[in-house]
Amino acid sequence: MAKKILIVDDDPDLVEAVTMILESKKYDVAAAYGGIEGLQKAKTEKPDLIVLDVMMPDKDGYIVCKELKADSKLSKIPVLLLTAVVSKISTTRYTQQMGMETEADDYIDKPVEPEVLVKRIEALLSK
Amino acid sequence: MPDQANILVIDDEQIMRDGCSRILSRDGCSVLCADNGSQGLEEIKSHPEKMDVILLDLMMPGMSGMEVLDHIRTFDPNLLVIVITGYATVESAVEAMKKGAYDFIPKPFTPDQLRIVVRRALERRTLQKETEFLRREREKSLRDIATEKSKIKTIINCMGDGVLVCDRDSCIVLSNPAASRMLKTSETLLLGNYLNQCNLPSELSKIMEESLQAKDMSYASVSQELSAGESGDIFLRAHTALVRNDIGEIMGSVTVLQDISHLKELDRMKSEFIAMVTHELRAPIAAVEQQLTVILNKMAGDVTEKQEQLLSRAKQRTRGLLDLIKDLLDLSKIEAGKMVQYKEPLLLQEVIQRVVDLMRAEAENKKIDLQFSTPPKLSLINADRNSMEGIFTNLISNAIKYTPEGGKVWVALGEEGGFVKATVSDTGIGIKKGDLGRIFDKFYRVKSTETRQIVGTGLGLSIVKSIVDAHLGSISVESEEGNGTTFILLLPKELNPAPC
């Protein structure tokens, strides 16, 4: 059975593009266009993995991730944080620090190369 | 005598008047004559400015010499009167002197005797005039000082910057309206009060008190930022300097206050603007690039070779834009002092090894030989790890970009004095002499046919320089056109290496 991935991002164009990448790899894709919707869909869609944007107007990715990890029914779902890299030089620190704070399982910069995204998702799913 | 001396002879005897007139005129004096007391007084009253010395006969019909003398003294006590006494009556001479005559000459007298007496009186007159002149000058100077004081007071009161002047006992002796306004207090609460009674912001009274304690002659001035106002929403910059007397003793201090709240506000707006740019400008470009990536990976259907070519180039452009935004953000962070905050003792060779490993693929793509050499033992530096990674990524990637295929790029570490020295060298196209001085400037890029194809924002090296500066290090460049480039970095060694 195909694994289901939930994409949470307020930018519909980005959601569409990532959806196409994942569907080409035969994943089942569900989409949410904001943090609050993302939390709801995490419960209703029961995804195997969540790709989560950081900067969202209603509820940002760090908070969504924290709430996911605090919910015993959802805390097992791996979260791949999609970070908008704000700085070339401090990339490493940004992802590491924020990652530690948010307990996300992995971090990836957007825009992302399809093979990189797929490789990371596969790694998380096979854990 | 600088001016012609004016002499009035009052005598009832024609022969005396003529005689005196002749003798004194010959000496260059201007002589007026009067044959009785009342006429003499009239002469004096009609040209008071023309009277230097008066020769006055005591024995005259009508108004007597003594009476005339009394009138002259009431009219102008400064007029010099020489009395002419008949037949050497000492008593009348003494009486005349008591009444204020300057001198006397007994009749009969020789021309020389007259000259001596008159000359002495004229000398006295000159001194009198000089004294008068000096007195007027002094009055004028005092008036000038008063004007100057009032001018300075007006300037100080009109100034937009606040001014507080303290004497050496920390008592405020001068303040202006701007100071009261900035400190939200009234002049009466400042003037004449000691610093600790004025309810000033504590940082302000502290720097003002401390400056007065300075023992060292070299102490010149100190600047500090502080917040004021009830909610601390006013930001001031205080600049305190000492007032010393001619032998260097501290007489007090002058503090100038500037309201920098608007600068702080600008700073906040700048940060907000940057945050806005990050999201509003980056996000759509990232989305566009993500879409291009999907199409290029043929996930949205087949793509012809020509389409693929065009889309790849479009993707290169979006990548360039994202890089530019990142660079701008880095630069603004460095300028805001937020970039190099996490200094720790670190081994530069580890950082560089990591960067070299990451860059190796890029070098191999261009068939460039990338080498790294380091002595086995090297001092620690106190630096921000990410910033260090950033600057070496930048320098090595530049070296690879500007070196033709088959070239060589090598990084070497060593020590020089109190510094760890790193050099990044290449066999690339080099830099023209005229461009060398400007390559660390913001947005400066060398434009030539060779560099046209190379993508860059022109910010990389200025970021590198800002980071090196923030580490109290230095960066320099040596290059010859067509003969490669070497960047030399000196970073201060960690002073107190923690025992390992």
User: Number of domains in the coordinates of chain B?
Assistant: 4
Structural class designation of chain A: alpha/beta
Which CATH first-tier class of chain A would you pick?
Answer: Alpha Beta
End-to-end span of chain B in angstroms? 96 Å
CATH topology of chain A: Rossmann fold
Biggest pleated-sheet summary of chain A: 5 strands, parallel
Q: Specify the CATH class of the largest domain in chain B.
A: Alpha Beta
Number of strands of chain A: 5
- Tally of alpha and pi helices of chain B: 14
Proportion of helical residues of chain A: 40-55%
Q: Mind telling me the CATH superfamily name of the largest domain in chain B? A: Histidine kinase-like ATPase, C-terminal domain
What's the rounded overall pLDDT mean of chain B? Answer: 85
SS strand fraction of chain A: 15-25%
Strand arrangement in the largest pleated sheet of chain B:
2-1-3-4-5
Radius of gyration of chain B: 46 Å
Proper CATH architecture of the largest domain in chain B: 2-Layer Sandwich
Quote the average pLDDT of chain A: 84
Instruction: Give start-end ranges of low-pLDDT stretches of chain A.
Output: 87-100
Q: Number of domains in the coordinates of chain A? A: 1
What is the element string of chain A, with H for helices and E for strands? EHEHEHEHEH
Q: What summary fits the major beta sheet of chain B?
A: 5 strands, parallel
Written account of the structure:
- The complex is a heterodimer of chains A (127) and B (500).
- Chain A is α/β, with parallel strands linked by helices and 127 residues long.
- Chain A has a single domain, classed as Response regulator (Rossmann fold).
- Helices cover 45% and strands 20% of the residues of chain A.
- Chain A has a five-stranded parallel β-sheet with strand order 2-1-3-4-5, with helices on both faces.
- In chain A, strand 3, helix 3 and strand 4 form a beta-alpha-beta unit.
- In chain A, helix 2 runs parallel beside helix 3.
- About 11% of the residues of chain A have low confidence.
- Chain B has 500 residues and is of the alpha/beta class.
- Chain B has 14 helices and 17 strands.
- Classes of the chains: A alpha/beta (127), B alpha/beta (500).
- Chains A and B meet through helix 1 and helix 4 of A and helix 9, helix 10 and helix 12 of B.
